[in-house]
Amino acid sequence: MKRQILATASALILAATANIAIAGGDAAAGKAKAATCGGCHGANGISAVPNYPNLAGQKEAYIVKQLKAFKAKTRTDATMNAMAAPLSDADMANVAAYYSGLK
Ligand code: HEC
């Protein structure tokens, strides 16, 4: 019983660590990738256009989730479907790390 609890606990810790590793993008690489995004979402992640969302300070996991949905076209927006299409999973994680770190 005790051993089982220990095994479960270490499995959970491993899973949690793996999640952090997946979520943790490289903000510097993301900044370079985000050069094309700034035209609509603002150079500092704050958009000047009413129907273009702000990305500064947005949750990292949420940004990744939305970009994946745009790429898969389960979230449809002609502009963002096209913008997300060439992004790799690493690009998405990096861009998300960059925008979530902006204030
Ligand atoms: C030509 C303008 C334009 C460009 C360029 C653009 N976006 Fe967008 N983006 C939009 C619009 C418009 C929406 C809102 C879509 C909708 O209404 O569903 C959006 C939505 C998003 C969202 C979802 C935000 C939310 O709150 O749900 C994310 C994330 C995002 N864009 C990231 C990016 C990234 C990363 C890039 C660069 C690779 C980029 N966008 C380039 C116009 C643009």
Tell me what the structure shows.
- The protein has 103 residues and is mainly alpha-helical.
- The chain has a single domain (2-100), classed as Orthogonal Bundle (Cytochrome Bc1 Complex, Chain D, domain 2).
- Helices cover 64% and strands 0% of the residues.
- It has helices spanning 2-23, 27-33, 38-41, 60-72, 78-84, 89-101.
- The chain is globular and about 60 Å long.
- Mean pLDDT is 87; it is low at 12-22.
- Heme C binds at residues 34, 36-37, 39-41, 51-53, 55, 63, 66-67, 77, 79-80, 83, 95.
Q: Report Rg.
A: 17 Å
User: Count of helices?
Assistant: 6
Q: What level of helicity do the residues show?
A: 55-70%
Query: How far apart lie the N and C ends?
Result: 48 Å
Number of domains: 1
Q: Kindly report the oligomeric state of this protein.
A: single chain
Structural class: mainly alpha
Global shape: globular
Per CATH, the architecture is Orthogonal Bundle
Reading the helices and strands in chain order gives HHHHHH
What share of the residues does DSSP label as strand, in percent?
under 5%
Write a brief structural summary:
The protein is mostly helical. Helix content is 64%, strand content 0%.
What descriptors fit this protein?
Cytochrome Bc1 Complex, Chain D, domain 2, 6 helices, mainly alpha, 64% helix, globular, binds heme C, 103 residues
Task: Write the SSE topology.
Blueprint lengths: L1 H22 L3 H7 L4 H4 L18 H13 L5 H7 L4 H13 L2
Helix pairs in contact: 2-6, 4-5, 4-6
The site of heme C has 18 residues, from helix 3, helix 4 and helix 5.
